[in-house]
Amino acid sequence: MAAEKKVILVTGGSGLVGKGLQHVVEQDKRADETWVFLSSKEADLTKQDETQAIFEKHRPTHVIHLAAKVGGLYKNLNSNLDFFRDNMAINDNVLNTSYKTGVRKVISCLSTCIFPDKTTFPVDETMIHNGAPHQSNYGYAYAKRMLDVQSRAYHAQHGRNFTSVVPTNVYGPHDNFNLEDGHVLPGLMHKVYMAKKEGSPLTVWGTGKPLRQFIFSRDLAKLIIWVMREYEEADPIILSVGEEDEVTVKDAALAVAEAMNFKGEVIFDTTKSDGQTKKTASIVKLRRYLPNFKFTPMKEGT
Amino acid sequence: MAAEKKVILVTGGSGLVGKGLQHVVEQDKRADETWVFLSSKEADLTKQDETQAIFEKHRPTHVIHLAAKVGGLYKNLNSNLDFFRDNMAINDNVLNTSYKTGVRKVISCLSTCIFPDKTTFPVDETMIHNGAPHQSNYGYAYAKRMLDVQSRAYHAQHGRNFTSVVPTNVYGPHDNFNLEDGHVLPGLMHKVYMAKKEGSPLTVWGTGKPLRQFIFSRDLAKLIIWVMREYEEADPIILSVGEEDEVTVKDAALAVAEAMNFKGEVIFDTTKSDGQTKKTASIVKLRRYLPNFKFTPMKEAMKYTCDWLEANYDTCRK
User: Does the beta carbon of B157 lie under 8 angstroms from any beta carbon of chain A?
Assistant: First the structure.
């Protein structure tokens, strides 16, 4: 490994995954690494001039690009255009400014929710563009897919080491627990919190049948740091627990209830949308690189 | 149809398809239509402020969005990033400015070269996103695909009548006849012109085996005008001659040679890339709407274009 100093800029550094990275980096300090965690307060990355200014200020050699306009199922459903345009702007500004300022490596963050809706399972890294994404969040999904397209294009046209990672559903401290636009697990945790307080039942949106692979944010952070230090491909890599650890939303709800000692009733509001039934992702590629990586058990993580 | 006045802004108005539109519109003037043909000299559409300014100047009610960074096979191969970024910028500026200024309808122009590389044939409008495009021009292809995604998103989120058309290989007067970055048919015409002048053989790049559907720019223009006046879907529509009119690059080369009275030898440089083998597109959707539309016979349209090239060689784009 090079002994040169690295300055690693993390966009979206105050979010769920960013905070996970902050935690792991504290436990594993390296002399050749300076970490800078950006939040949206410091720069609006949809603006090219603000992005340029922040790069000039910090002069990164590496970028972990987590910043995005995100939301749960319901927010996406009605605003696909905005999710597409804002994320395209952020991504183009970050990648292009990285290119212009000589950044060596950019790791962008995709998601398994961007895979084709009609597909065989498990999905793997080669299947990202093989069909239209789910109708509920096609704006966000296409913008993320274009991150992969651009990363490979920067690599092909300019020889830059730009690549991407594909996590499944992430959870952990510092998540967005908002019931309207948070994701499923933090949403459930917030609901159990309120149900306990109010002595009311836990109402889970949807049928509870959809299946998900949940990865603890600190495990994801360790893997992203490994990608930053060691992974050299331009093609993306899925970062997740294995297929055998897939759980239903119902089982996730029950696990949260148990973790929070909730004794009340659990009901399912089937008038609400389920989103995608399945998103099962293969970690064969990850296991080729890291056969011995141990994930935090879900019970402990929640 | 509404009796309200239409101001139709055509971006890329000085290009191959734009000139086709200009010609057809001249022959079919309507009292309720004002046509404005933009060229890149008047505005750099990769810049948001210049796009805004041109919309404020002309106040269009309708937009036919043809402007793009385009090139033939060889130029795309080495610059996929630039083709992606420039076209994304142009497209976002045009669609977003159209939305902000209350434009009722935007018709964007896609291409059959953006379809999935691994696919069954013929391709149709529902198949655009069903797999990665050909490696040779994925930058351009993805940017065009995102035009369809955005058109449908403007429709879903804001109720705007934004849609797209999908032509196959277009040819006609006012094309780009440059040998490096023009397309196959104008490239062949230019080569025959030079081969005749120099008394040398005609060298066709590639094996000559790839198949293409060629649509004359003036036929395409008539169809785009019909889309602007009558087509109400947000989903795209393929505009092309039928599958039965697909020809090989070799047969196209021989047709050009005949149209230009070239008697020399025709050889194939198989060290050059062929690009995609086939791109056969279905016009079942078009025929549902326009069962009786007649295309200009290829022999006639080619002769017209070749004659135009010979008469305008010095000033044409090359």
Answer: yes
> Would you put residue B199 in left (φ > 0), alpha (ψ -120 to 50) or beta?
left
Per DSSP (E only), the strands in chain A are: 6-11, 33-37, 62-65, 105-109, 161-167, 169-171, 202-205, 211-212, 214-216, 237-239, 247-248, 266-269
Chain B from 80 to 99: CB within 8 A of any A CB: 80-82, 84-85, 88, 92, 96
CB B149 within 8 A of CB A142: yes
B107/B118 Cα distance (integer angstroms):
27
Distance (Å, rounded) from C-alpha A268 to C-alpha A180?
A: 17
- Candidate from A80, A85, A139 with C-beta closest to B92: A85
pLDDT (tens place) for every residue of chain A, 302 residues total: 556 899 999 999 999 999 999 999 999 889 999 999 999 899 999 999 999 999 999 999 999 999 999 876 667 777 999 999 999 999 999 999 999 999 999 999 998 889 999 999 999 999 999 999 988 889 999 999 999 999 999 999 999 999 999 999 999 999 988 887 778 899 899 999 999 999 999 999 899 999 999 999 999 999 999 999 999 999 999 999 999 999 999 999 999 999 999 999 999 999 988 877 888 999 999 999 999 999 998 888 77
Residue type at position A78: N
How far, in Å, CA of A183 to CA of A170, rounded?
9
Using a CB-CB cut-off of 8 Å, the residues of chain A touching B156 are 80-81
Reduced to 3 states (helix: H, G, I; strand: E, B; else coil), residue B4 is coil
Tell me the residue ranges of DSSP E strands in B125-264: 161-167, 169-171, 202-205, 211-212, 214-216, 237-239, 247-248
**Amino acid symbol at A45:** L
User: Is there a contact between A282 and A288 (Cβ–Cβ < 8 Å)?
Assistant: no
Task: Using an 8 Å CB-CB cutoff, list chain A residues near B129.
Answer: 129, 131-132
So what's the ipTM on this one? Answer: 0.87
Q: Which ranges of A34-127 does DSSP label H, i.e. alpha helix? A: 48-58, 73-78, 80-100
- How many CB atoms are located within 10 Å of the residue A271 CB? 7
- What is the DSSP annotation of B25-55? HHHT--TTEEEEE--TTT--TTSHHHHHHHH
Name the burial class of residue A95, with classes exposed (0-12), middle (13-18) and buried (19+) by CB atoms within 10 angstroms of its CB: buried
Reported as type and span, the H/E element at residue B109 is strand B105-109
